[in-house]
Amino acid sequence: QLQLVASGGALVQAGGSLRLTCTAKTFPFSNYPMTWVRQAPGQEPEWVATINPSSHPTWTTDSVKGRFTISRDNTALTLTLQMNDLKPEDTGLYYCARGGRDVVRDRLSWGSGTQVVVSS
Fold it and tell me: Is 65 exposed, middle or buried, given 0-12, 13-18 or 19+ CB atoms closer than 10 A?
């Protein structure tokens, strides 16, 4: 059974920063690309960022380019999303997921979410 546990979400003011962390268990983490997905209230899930198994390359959606950075530690089995200059539109539940960008349509590959709320 896939186990991905995200943490680090919080209430933060616009312009602030958060660091989300996802801990992986039960599968060979270093073999898979990993992805962050977010879902705002009442909206469809949105792909945020993906990282290759070797940490390079990485990809981010246009709305977060220059503000969010995805990274991973294959020894510690962790996936990270550093979020800077947060905006109210970044509010949502953030999930880490096993796989590439297409995993946004496969909830079975997602772990538990962590809530991010950005106040204006």
Answer: exposed
Residue 75 sits at the vertex; the CA angle it makes with 50 and 69, to the nearest 5 degrees, is: 30
SS (H, E, C) 27-53: CCHHHCCEEEEEECCCCCCEEEEEECC
Rounded to an integer, what distance in angstroms lies between the CA atom of residue 95 and that of residue 85?
20
At 26, the pLDDT band (50, 70, 90 cuts) reads confident
Across the chain, which distance is largest between two alpha carbons, in Å?
Answer: 40
Half-sphere exposure of 10 (CA within 13 A, CB side): 12
pLDDT, tens digit (0-9, with 9 covering 90-100), for 8-21: 999 999 999 999 99
The pLDDT of residue 43 is above 90: yes
Is residue 48 within 8 Å of 94, Cβ to Cβ?
yes
CA count, 13 A, side-chain hemisphere, 22? 28
